[in-house]
Amino acid sequence: MGEHGLADALALADPDQFLRLERDAGRSGRFAWIDQLAANMLTMALSGRDLVNITPGERGQKNRDIITVTFLTPQDRAFVDETFSLSAQQARGAWFLPEQATLKAGTLNLPAHARRYPWQAVTIAGEDVARVHVGSTADALLAWSLLIPLLDALMAPITIRASGSAQSADEQHKAWTEILQSYTDLGIALTPEVMVFAYRGGWSQLDRAGQVQARIALLDSLARHDLVQVAARFRASRLQKLIAATMKKKTGQGSPLARRVLTKVLQPTLSAYFAGDWLAFLDHIKVPPNSGEELVTALPEPKLYVGGSAKAESAAAQHGLNVDDVHTMLAAFLGQDSSVSPVEQRVDVLKRWWQQFDAVHARQTENMPSLWGLVEEGFYSIGYGEGPQRQLYRSLLSTDLVEDVDRLWDGITLARWPQVIVSEPYPHRLMAETLGPAATFWHGVALTTWYVCEGPTSRIPLTELRAYHKAHLTQLADAETPIHPSLFDELENAERYLGPPQELPSYEHQLKLADGRIGFRVTGGGQRRDGFVILRDIVTRHRQGWAQRYLTHYLQHRWTSELTYVARELHKSIAANGKSPTFRQFARVATTAANHWFNGDLAGLYTAIGEKAPATPRRVDLLPIAAHDFVDAVYARLGGRPYEELLRVTNFPLADEYRQKARLAAASVVYLQIAEALGRAPDPKEFGAARHEWSWAGSVDEGWPIYQKAIEEVLARSQHP
Predict the structure, then answer these.
(1) Which contiguous run of DSSP H or E holds residue 520?
(2) Lowest pLDDT segment from 511-515, 524-528, 609-613
(3) 353: enclosing H helix or E strand
(4) What is the three-state SS of 91-155?
C-alpha cells in the first residue's frame, strides 16, 4: 500500500475487512491480550458474576471511591497494572487523561443484577457510580477506557428499555436502528431474543415477568457468541473512528497533531488499545508523525516563589547588594509594597491564630460557655434552635489577629468570572478552610468533650470520635502529620473518671410566636457530668504535642500541595494542548489556592508558580457592612421574623415561609458577589434561583423582583445610613 494506504483502507473497511487488513499487515498481534481480556470479562459478566467491586471512599473525601475489577488472573493483573497505570500512560504523553472521574459503572454488573435481582436489576445498577482518582488503581482507567464503553454497547437494549422514552416515533426508530447496527457490527445475530427489545418488536406487549425473562434470554443469547470476536469487532469499530478522525485532520504537512484529533470521545480509545501512546497508534496505521509533534513524557518540576524575604539578607551579601534594595526588588517581583510574600504573610497569621486558638481551649473551664463559634464553619444562616455563638472569635481572639484575618482573607475569585476579585463575606470561615483538617479535627474533638460533660447532649460519644473523624485523620496522615491513636484510647479510658450523669433542670417560658399566638418553650434539660477538665487536659496535651512536632510542616504542606497542584495542572494543560490555558481555564483549577493564599488574586498565584499572568484581576467590593448584619437586614426586609420551632407545629406554612426567606437572605451575600463579578445585578439563572424555594411568593417570577428590591434597599441604606 502507498503512503497512508493502510490507514485509508482501515477507515473504510467493514469489521471483518478491518480485522483481516490488520492481520495481513502484521498489526493484529499487539491486541491479542486485550481482546482476550475483554472477552474474559464479558464471559464473567454474562454468566452472572459481578465484574467490579466499588468500595466507597471515606466520608468527606472527594473522589476516594475504589473500583476493583474481579476475576483477573495473576498474568492479567500484571498486564492491567502495567498497561493501565495512569502514570505510565502519562509517561507516554497521555496528559489528556482525567485524574478525577465519575464512573457510571452500572452496566458492568447489570448482567449479574439481572440474574440475581431480576425485578430491581436496573435500579440497583444505577447506583453503581464510582467517584475515583484515576491514578488510585489501574482498574479505574481500565473501566473508564475499555469496560464501560464495551458493556454500555452490549447492554443498550436493556438500559434503553428501562429508561423509557419520550421521543417521537421517528426518533425512536432511528435510535433502535443505530443499536441494531451496532449489534450487527459486533457480529451479534439479530435473533428474536434481540429483536423483542427493538422498536415495535413486541416489548410493550410483555408483562413485567415477561420483560424479566426477556432480559435473561438476551444475556444467554449474547453469551453463546464468540466473545473474543465480539471484543475484537468492538475494538475495530472504536479504532475506525479514531483512524477516520486522524485522516480527516491530516494536512499537506502530514498527520495531524495529537491534540487536534483526541477529543473527549476518542481519548478512551487511545488509552484502551495503545496505552495512551499516540506515536504507537500512528505506527500501527503506518502514518508518520507530524514534524511538529512534541509529546511531553514528563512534566517540569514545579518551582514555587513564596519565601524570598527570609533569604534577602544572605542574597544581598552573596551578590554585594544593599538589603533594602533586595527587599525592594522582591516586592516589585511580587507586585506589592512588601517583600514578604502573600503566602508568608498568611502562614504567619495562621501560626498566631493557632497559638490563641490553643490557649482559649486550654483555659476553658466548666463554668465557661461552649466554644462553638470560635471557628467559623460556614455561611451564617437564620433559624431556630441552638447554634454556634455568632462571631465568638471576635471576643476571644486578639483584636490585631482578628483584623489581620479580616484583611488577608476578605477577597476571593469566582471560577466563572475570574477577571474580578469579589468580596469574601466570611473571612474567618475562609481562613479556617485554608488551615484545613487540623483546625476542624482539634476543634471538633474539644467541642465533643465539652458537650459530653456539660451537655445537654453530645452529637457523638467519646467512643465514636475515632470513626467520626476518620476522614480528617486520613488527611492528616496523608500530610505526614498524623494524630497519635493514644488520644482516643486516653479519652475513652478517662470516661470512667467522669462523674455520674446529672439531670439538668428545664424551664418553661411563655413566648409570643411570630404569628401572634402565645406559646411555651421548654429550655434546659439533658444531662451533664463532672470531669470536663480531665478530658480538656488530655486533648490539650495531645494538641500541643502535635503542634510542637508538626504545625510548621503541616502549614508548609498546606500551601505547597495546593500551589504544586496548580503548577502541575498548568503544565499538564500545556503538554496536552500545546499552549497555556486561558485565564478562565486556569481559574477552574486555581481558585482554591488563590482564595486560600492570595486573597483571590490569580495574578499573584501565577507569580508564585513562576509564570506570567495573562491578565490582572480588578477588585470590587459592594458589601458595605458585616455579612451577618447584611443577611439579617435582608431577612427583615423580606418580611422574615424571629421564630421558634414551636411555630412549625402551630403554623407550619408560616414557619416554612420564614425558612425559605431565611435561606434566600443567607444567599444575599452570594448575590452581591455575582453582582461584583458582573458589574451589574445578576439574573435568576446567573444567581441560581432554581436552587431556592419561592412558594412564599407564588413563583420565582413573582419572588425574584421582591428579592432584588430587598437587597437593593438594604444595600442603599447600608451605604447611606
Answers:
(1) strand 518-524
(2) 511-515
(3) helix 342-362
(4) HCCCCCCCCEEEEECHHHHHHHHHHHCCCCHHHHHHCCEEEEECCCCHHHHHHHHHHHHHHHHHC
Sequence-distant (6+) residues with CB within 8 A of 244 are: 11
- Provide the number of structural domains found in the chain: 3
Beta-carbon contacts of residue 372 (< 8 Å; ≥ 6 apart): 387, 388, 389, 392, 447
pLDDT per residue over 242-283, tens digit each?
A: 999 999 988 766 789 999 999 999 999 999 999 999 999 999
Q: Are residues 212 and 111 in the same domain?
A: yes
Helix (H) or strand (E) holding 423: strand 417-423
Instruction: Please give the full DSSP string across 462-474, using - where no structure is assigned.
Output: GGGHHHHTHHHHH
**Model confidence over 645-703: pLDDT tens digits?**
778 888 899 999 999 999 999 999 999 999 999 999 999 999 999 999 999 999 999 99
C-alpha–C-alpha distance, residues 76 and 71, integer Å: 9
User: Which residue type, as a one-letter code, is found at position 323?
Assistant: V
User: Terminus-to-terminus CA distance in the chain, angstroms?
Assistant: 84
DSSP 495: G
593 and 710 fall within a common domain: no
Shared-domain flag, residues 559 and 658: no
* Residue 306 maps to a domain: no
In this prediction, residue 503 has a pLDDT band, given cuts at 50, 70 and 90, of confident
Q: What is the 3-state secondary structure (H, E, C) of 251-316?
A: ECCECCCHHHHCCCCCHHHHHHHHCCCHHHHHHHCCCCCCCCCCCCCCCCCCCCCCCCHHHHHHHH
Lowest mean pLDDT among 40-54, 335-349, 429-443, 707-721: 335-349
Do 183 and 210 reside in the same domain of the chain?
A: yes
* Residue 127 in domain: yes
Q: pTM of the full predicted structure? A: 0.83
Q: 444-484 pLDDT, tens per residue? A: 999 999 999 998 889 999 999 999 999 999 999 999 999 99
pLDDT at position 226 over 90: yes
**Quick one: cell of 7?**
490507514
Contact indicator for 600, 617 with CB cutoff of 8 Å: yes
CA proximity to 408, closest of 316, 495, 470, 346: 346
Per the structure, the complete domain to which residue 585 belongs is given by 341-619
Q: What is the pLDDT of residue 323?
A: 46
Domain-embedded: residue 292:
no
Q: Can you state the percent helix, strand and coil of the chain, rounding each to 5?
A: 60, 5, 35
Number of helical H runs and strand E runs in the chain: 36, 11
Helix (H, G, I), strand (E, B) or coil at 420: strand
Give CA–CA dist 425/428, Å, rounded.
9
In a domain, 331, yes or no: no
Would you call the peptide bond into 289 cis, given omega within 30 degrees of 0 as the criterion? no
Instruction: Compute the chain's Rg from CA coordinates.
Output: 31
Of 251, 284, 317, the one marking the end of a domain is 284
* 653 plus 597 within the same structural domain: no
Q: Are residues 715 and 638 in the same domain?
A: yes
pLDDT band, residue 318 (cuts 50/70/90) = low
Query: In sequence order, which ranges of 25-73 are alpha helices (DSSP H)?
Result: 32-46
CA dihedral over 661, 662, 668, 671, signed as positive or negative: negative
Clarify whether residues 16 and 129 are in a common domain.
Answer: yes
What mean pLDDT, rounded, does the chain reach?
Answer: 90
Judged by DSSP in three states, 425 sits in coil
pLDDT at position 721 is 60
State the Cα–Cα distance between residues 342 and 336, nearest whole angstrom.
Answer: 9
* pLDDT, greater one: 655 or 550: 550
Q: Does residue 538 share a domain with residue 641?
A: no
